[in-house]
Structure formats: C-alpha cells, structure tokens
Write a structure and sequence with these properties.
Strand order of the largest sheet: 13-12-11-14-15-16-17-18
Largest sheet: 8 strands, mixed
Helix content: 40-55%
Structural class: alpha/beta
CATH class of the largest domain: Alpha Beta
Radius of gyration: 28 Å
Number of domains: 3
CATH superfamily of the largest domain: 2-enoyl-CoA Hydratase, Chain A, domain 1
CATH architecture of the largest domain: Alpha-Beta Complex
Bound molecules: (S)-3-Hydroxyhexanoyl-CoA
Strand content: 5-15%
Amino acid sequence: MTTLIDYRLDGQVALIGLDRPPVNALGQPLRAALAEAFEQAIGDAQVCALVIYGQGRAFSAGADISEFGSPAAFATPDLASLLSRLADSPKPVVAAIAGVALGGGLETALACGYRIGTASATLGLPETRIGLLPGAGGTQRLPRLIGAEAALEMILSGESVSASQALALGLIDRLVADGDDVLAAATDFARTLLDESAPAQRAWRYSDPAQGLPASFFEDYAAARSRRWKGQLAPVLALEAVRAACAGSLEEGLAREQVLFKQVESSAQSAALRHQFFAQREALKISGVSKDIALRPVDHVAVIGAGTMGGGIAMNFANAGIPVTLLELKGEALDRGLMHIRKNYESSVKRGKLTVQQLEARMALITGTLEYADIANVDLVIEAVFESLAIKQSVFCTLDKVCKAGVILATNTSTLDVDLIAAVTRRPQDVIGLHFFSPANIMKLLEVVRGRETSAQVLATTLHLARRTDKIAVVSGVCFGFIGNRMLEPYAREAHRLVLEGATPAQVDGVLTELGLAMGVLSMYDLAGIDVGYLVRESRREAIAHDASYFKLADELYAHGHYGQKTGRGFYRYEGRERIEDYEVVACSEVLANELGIARRVISNDEIHDRCLFMLINEGVQLLDEGIAERSGDIDLVWINGYGFPAWLGGPMHYAEQMGLSRVLAGIEHYREQLGDYGQMWFQAAPLLQRLVAAHQTRIQRL
Ligand code: 3H9
C-alpha cells in the first residue's frame, strides 16, 4: 500500500483515508491507491463496511486539474470507472466529509451509498468554472439524489452548499457538529447500517429526476441564461448531461456524460480557464517574499477621500468585517460620501442580497472624520484622492507626520509613479500602491504596486489582506499605468485611430464584444468619462506629443462637453441605458481625418481585431520583458478581472499563445508596413516577442 492512503481496520469497518496534501486531488497515483485499498477491503472477509475520508483540510478538491489536457487525466484507473466500481460495492460505503468535497471529490462521495458531513463542510461541483462538467458521474447521480432542478443549479452555478443545506437537499444523510470526530461518527454510522442490515446502495430518491418539472424546463433554463453563457461551451454541455439523466438509464446517462466530458476537457476554453485557475495561485508567489514572512496585523483601515472610489474601498473592507475610518476635508463631502455608501447598501437590500441588519452592521463599521488625528493609530491607510501627483504627495506628507510607526501607507493611483509618492515620506519601505478598480466593492482585481523600496513584509501583508477581502491580487512594478492601464493605452489608441480611418465606434466595439469582451473600448471610455481620459492625457502631453492624431476625436468630444454616458453623449448617444450610434461623431471623424491627412476607407473586422488585440498583446510582452509583470499569467489575470477580457480565452497572453506568437508578430510587421508613418511609429514589435518567435517558443515567458 502506498502512503497516499491511510488504511486501517476498526473492527468490521475498513477506514480508507485519502492522504495527498494539500487537498487530496484525485490524480492518477491517488486513484490507483484508492482502487487498491477498496479492492483490499472488498476482498477481506473480516470487513463488512467501509468509510472513506480525507486526511488534512479537505475530503477532496476533486480531480487533479493539472492532469487535464494530458493522458494522465484518463490514465487507469480513470475516475469515472473507479467510482462506478465504488458504486457497485457489495458492502456499504460511508463518505465522511470534513472540509471541502468539490468536483470529483463530491462525485466520490456520491458514489458511496451513504454520506455524513461536519457542520463546516462545503460541497460543490465547480467544474463549469474551469470549463469542464462533472465527469465522474456527478451529472447523473446528483439529479437522482436531489432532483434535476436542484442538481442543475448546483452544477451550473458552480457554487458550493453548506453541510446544513446539503442535509436539507438530501445530499448528505447526517450532520456532525464541528469539533466532534467525523471519522468516529462515520464508523458508528457504518456499524448502525450493519446492525440494520442496510443495503449497500439505496434506491435513488428520484427515479425520475425531472418529475414535476414542465416539459420545456431545460429549454427555458437555457434561454434564461443565453446571454450569460454566450460563447461558452461548458454550461451548455453540462445542461445536456443533466438532461440525459432525465432521459434514460443510469448506464446510458454515464456513457453520455463521458462523451460530453471529453468534449469539454479537450476544448480550448477549458485549457484557458484552467490556466486562469493556476495563474491566480501563482500570482501570490512573489520573488523575494518568503511564504513564512511575519505579517503585520491589519485590524483597522483608513481611507482618504469619500468620493466614488474612496467609498467603494471603504465598503470593500466593511464587507469583510474590518473597521474603516473615512476621512474627508469638508463635512459636506463626507456626508455625501457616507450617504452614497448607505444608498449602495440599500440597493443591495432591495435586491435581496443583504438584510437590513447586515446593512446596519456594515455601516456601523464605517466611521467618518474630518481630522487626520483620528487615523493616527490605524494599521493601513489608503489614499483615494484626485489623480494628481502634487495632491497625493501632499497627502502622504501629512500621513507621514500623523500616522504611527509600522502603518502601511497605500496610494490608489491608477497611473502615477508610486516611488515619487513614497519619496516624500521618511518611510518609503511602508509605501505601496493599491490600485482598486471601480466599483471597488465589486470589482475583483487589485493591482498591488511594488515600489522600489516597498518592503517584502508590506507586500506580503497586502496580498494576504487582498485574500481576506476576496480580491484577486496581482503585483505590478512601477511604470505609467502599471500593468492594466499601460496595456490599455495602445489597445485604446488603435480603437480611436480606426474610427478616424473609417470604422464606426459601433463596428470597433462590436468586434471586441463579439470576441467576448464585456464591453468595447469606446463604450468603456464613455462609461469612465471622456473628461477623465482627457485629464489623464493632459497630465502627460509631452510623452504622447510626437503623435497626437489618434485621440483628436476624443479631444473634440471633450471640447463639446460630450463626456460620455453621464452627459448623454460621447462616442455614442444615450437614451436611458440604450446606446445609439451618433452620426455626428462619424461626421466629425471624417472632418478630422481630412484635416490630419488620413485616407478614409472601409475597415474589415479582422483588421480591427488584429490591430487592437496585437497591440494589447505586444505591450503585455514588453511589460514582462521589463519585469513590470512577473509572469504572463499575471497579465492575463489583470485583463480578465479588471478589463472584462473573457475568462474562457484565458487573457490576452494566453489568447496570443493560442493564436500563435508568429501570427501576432507577422500581424504587427504587416501593419507597420501598411500604415505608413503611423505604422512605423506605433507598430514596433516588442523585442521579447521577436526573440520568442525566433526561438520557436510557443509560450510567452522571459528569454
Ligand atoms: C473535476 O473534479 C473533474 C471531475 O468532475 C471529473 C474527472 C474525470 N487539482 O486554492 P488554494 C492546489 S475538476 C490540482 O491555494 P485554498 C492549488 O493549485 C476539479 N491542484 O487553497 C494550490 O497549489 P499551490 C474540480 C489543486 O485553501 C493548493 O492546492 N474542483 C486542486 O484557498 C492549495 O489551493 C475544483 O475546481 C485540484 N483540484 O482553496 C476545486 N485544488 O499551493 C479547485 C487545489 O501549489 N480548488 N489545488 O499553489 C479550489 O477551489 C480551492 O483550491 C480549494 C482550496 C477550495 C480546494
């Protein structure tokens, strides 16, 4: 017996412990060891019942995700066959669930005749989140146990349920109080089953999982989610698998599930989502920051500035139960900010997302003040004032004077030089950038900007805090715009310029949303505010003065007071929430193109795709080469979680790898030639991209 399984006997009960830290992922070696232990128990006449449990913090987090896309995923014994064997056990098998039972982990429990769980256990089938579907019987056994509707909801939401919900659903048979020994309880349960001569497998609770559902149930379910599922394979095929559970025998359903599972497993979408899963975990491993570094306690936070951003940041901490002091200069602005926060929470109450008590509890965690003295003892200060270096530096001078030693001083700048801000303090090692995305209480991404002197301890503490507040943290070095906004610039530049060359804003945005982006870049500028974009450009006119042509149209919109959605006009006209093509914008681009000597022509959708995307990718590769981003996966996380890049394409870097790096390079070189002076100026392939292609590399990495 290998060490992957802890096998022992307790009287007539065989105890089989999965022992593959950290989460008992069911890779081939563990599957083989489990199969062997199972057969040993079945073959042992002394054993009358079995208990399967997980050593450590999980029952099992499911199949080993790193095996997918390789033969190891289906290597003997494959999980589906192993679980079918388990389900046919002639002796009762009890799954003892403590911690998480996810994906193939829950499917293992479903193949057992009986399930018992601790109160803090969570159970779920999150496969669709990584572009898969439950492929070891989950789509067939779960509907037969809890009904098709509840099963579909669990499978398609990917959300876990608590042990008490699982008990109510009939997913587990017994609940064990936290602190009680789940293994002892499971062994007792097994003995009771033996005393009662209980069958090894009970009849399914739902012989017809679709019983009581309307005939059009599956069509209606898919139709209601067609927008959310647009372009995605896994949810559509997962639904089909559950439907198969309602249409025939278990054997037929399991066979259908296998076919569908293999289809998603080999899809590019699943490869992209799996890449994202690991990228998210890799992003927390930072060079120079050891895993065991002592963290600073963060029990109280202050936010400077009660505007939209400051308010969102305050809510982010209050939502995680961390007290926040919100500081403003004027009473009116503070009241407005606090009122806005309350309104936001009230709308969550109206939507049923929050109870009134939770609203009040969160508001009670946020205290307003006009005095810097009130934040002298907090553990972290986040400045969220107007995006101006001089103003931010003056705030940091004050913080340096007022705040206690050991406080972390963070700036929420989206573009400015964190080192120049740190330099005005006597403690640059305690200064860091925390770039939240608006609305800060909702958006998952947090760009953590590591200044030249930021200490490893400060960095580690903020990364830990990000997890506490459910943010996806990505570390960036210091440069204009960090990872996200620096890449936005060339991408947005092409979008703007293409409109001058003859595309309409709707055509440009249409190509991007067709690809799966949550929003086209020009619509995004309308949402963020044409005035905001203008002010960012104003702050760095010298840097972009050598070719000012591409943003002439945006400057013109600014001059006319067309600031985007908030004024009802920008690149589009707005009637309520409806976005309408504005023919005056088209006419204006014609005039500007004429003035700038740009020949207007019919622009193909392919050209829009290639110019916007290749320039985005090129900048990402350059950032990696400069060391601003540590890994290409970090760049992907930023664009998926902060800029609406479709997760199922894996982020711009992964997408480039899928397209082929040589295609990206060839495209850049093509437009460099085709677009005359403009092409010569902007279409310069990143040296790292050239090196990678020359070395026939398919992955984006430093070379
Ligand atoms: C499946 O089951 C398919 C079947 O239906 C059909 C098969 C035929 N595999 O997240 P953490 C690693 S698909 C491999 O930092 P936490 C993770 O990379 C699977 N590795 O901890 C990390 O490694 P490292 C369906 C895995 O406490 C370490 O474990 N299941 C897996 O914040 C710690 O992870 C899922 O989708 C895995 N399955 O969260 C569940 N899981 O230290 C995916 C974790 O080297 N997992 N690792 O960076 C999770 O949701 C979370 O990891 C979990 C723990 C909640 C378990």
